[in-house]
Write a structure and sequence with these properties.
Length: about 250
């Protein structure tokens, strides 16, 4: 049974005993009927989290305020199951900004993006072109964030609604960090910022995101599963390096 749960993506124990959700209806009190029937005029206006995110994002003037504002954003349910809010890592002044998908288990525990196995591979990939998240020059440094700042349960793929409601913050994040080049690491940032998926076709093709050059690349987690794809990833890293050198 434990193996089956792990296979389904459950990787941590939350309660000592399981909850029989099918039996809850029988034991929970029924919600009281409303005293009066709401008139159509009185019905509450439905909240559009993406619209609220856009208004909140438009109000922030620097990365510090963006971090605080996102951390307080109440509408994304992923925050309930996450241990930490994961904002960014590296140097905001870097010429290159990497946008990943969402925190995994290690990132959730540490509150920093790309620190698990995929992140360690990413660091080695960057090192191969003489770049690093903690490099002191903007030429060699990178700035790293994700489409979502909270870990989806069991590392499941982010849902379209989650991506849409956090997108205004990501767009503001890119505008405030103001990188010369954006790297879209995997399908999720391509879906969010290009409205397209199919990373094996998109990778290596320079495109544009918010008026700046952008390069989709396969995610390092994919490279861990498919080492043969490292050949194309290497070609993409060289293409990035050439662009930075103005070649
Ligand atoms: N994968 C991502 O896309 N982002 C992380 O931070 C970790 C793994």
């Amino acid at each position: 049974m434990l193996a089956w749960h792990i296979e389904c993506g459950a990787d941590e124990a939350i309660l000592d005993a399981t909850i029989d959700r099918y039996g809850l209806d029988a034991v929970l009190p029924k919600p009281a009927a409303p005293a009066t029937v709401a008139t159509p005029e009185a019905a509450p206006t439905p909240v559009d989290p993406a619209q609220i995110a856009a208004a909140m994002a438009a109000n922030v003037a620097d990365l510090e305020s963006l971090r605080d504002t996102m951390d307080r954003f109440p509408y994304c349910e992923l925050r309930q199951g996450a241990r930490n809010f994961v904002f960014a890592d590296g140097r905001p002044e870097a010429r290159v900004m990497i946008v990943g998908e969402a925190p995994g288990r290690e990132e959730d525990l540490e509150g920093r993006p790309f620190v698990g196995r995929a992140g360690q591979l990413l660091d080695r990939m960057l090192g191969a072109i003489d770049m690093a998240r903690d490099a002191t020059t903007p030429e060699q440094a990178v700035y790293i964030t994700n489409v979502l700042p909270w870990r989806p349960p069991g590392n499941r793929t982010p849902e379209a609604g989650e991506i849409a409601m956090m997108l205004p913050f990501l767009e503001r994040h890119i505008a405030l960090a103001d990188p010369e080049i954006v790297i879209l690491m995997g399908n999720v940032p391509c879906q969010a910022l290009l409205g397209r998926v199919g990373i094996t076709r998109l990778r290596g093709q320079w495109t544009e995101v918010l008026g700046r050059p952008a390069l989709p690349m396969v995610h390092p987690a994919y490279l861990l599963r498919q080492p043969a794809a490292k050949r194309e990833a290497w070609a993409d890293l060289l293409s990035l390096k050439a662009r930075l050198l103005g070649q």
